[in-house]
Amino acid sequence: MDTCVRCGADLGVGRFCLNCGHPIGEPAPVAAPPPPVAVDPGPPPAPADAPPEPTAFPVQAADPTPVAPVADPLADPVAPVAPAPPPRTPAPTAPAPARSAWDPERDLLPYEEVDALHTDDPVRGRAWIFWVLGAVLLVGLVVVLLEAFATDEDGTTASDPTSSASTAPNDTGDGESTEPDEEAEEAPKGVGKLVNLAGQATFEVPGTAPPTTDFDGNLVAYEASQMQDGNLSTTWRTAGDASGQAVTITLPEPGVVSRVGLVNGYTKQVAGVDWYPNNRRILSVTWGFDDGTSVEQTFSERPGMQRLKVPPVETSTITITITAVTPPGSGNLGRDYTAISEVAVIGRRAG
């Protein structure tokens, strides 16, 4: 016996039905018939000629539908047997994807852990000092190299093309040449401090331009003595192109000259006018000394003193031979004059 005779539920293990509690193996109880239902016959029919009895409310006709019998509340209820659900067939499941050899979710650490494992070393508070020192040293090295290889006039030693102490063979005039002495003469040194020997010298010039009147009505002269007054706003100038002309400097006493130089134009600036480009500028000169030696100096077109180192030479006079000048100044303010604003002859007194 697999089902309960009372409720029809599947029987399990035990002596009673797990659904309704009926003892297993006992016959099903017989339900008592329901008691008869009394039917109210209603009022007797009225005579056909009798008027209808007035009523306060209309009476609805009885529903001819039979009334279902009422079950005995004392009888044991019989639960309906629910049909057994059909067996569920498990849905086919997709095969699990094959796991790769390297799984990022499994093999990679969270970014917090990665950052914790690879923290950068903090920069020490004074580490920038080493960078600054390195930059300063690099700049200093560049400055030293520039000074070493610069072609500044003050640091250039002039060669002496006409010196008798040249290393080239000397021509004797008869086709034979003689080598210079193995022991060169010792260069003169002089005594005392280095000074500008031109400050006390006298200047002899080939000519002087006449004085003029400036924009303020002042008379401006161009005397030779203004090449030694230490004022770059004054000048000596001569008319036209002075190429081939010479200025002679006579020292008050013999001296040992080691450096020469001059300001190669008229460097005065007044009332917004720059007279340097408005006059001729000297491009090159030749310096001559008493022993017959000479050196050549070239100039850039810039106002200011431009000096040249020369082999130390003892002399009483120096000649400045002008070899090249620029064209006259252009425009309304252009002037056709060759000018020298200042001359420097640096040396010591002869011993």
From TrEMBL:
Record carries keyword Transmembrane helix: yes
Keyword terms of this UniProt record: Membrane, Transmembrane, Transmembrane helix
Pfam name, any one: NADase_transloc
Region (Disordered): 28-104, 154-188
Listed transmembrane segments: 128-150
InterPro entries: Galactose-bd-like_sf, NADase_transloc
Protein name, as recorded: NAD glycohydrolase translocation F5/8 type C domain-containing protein
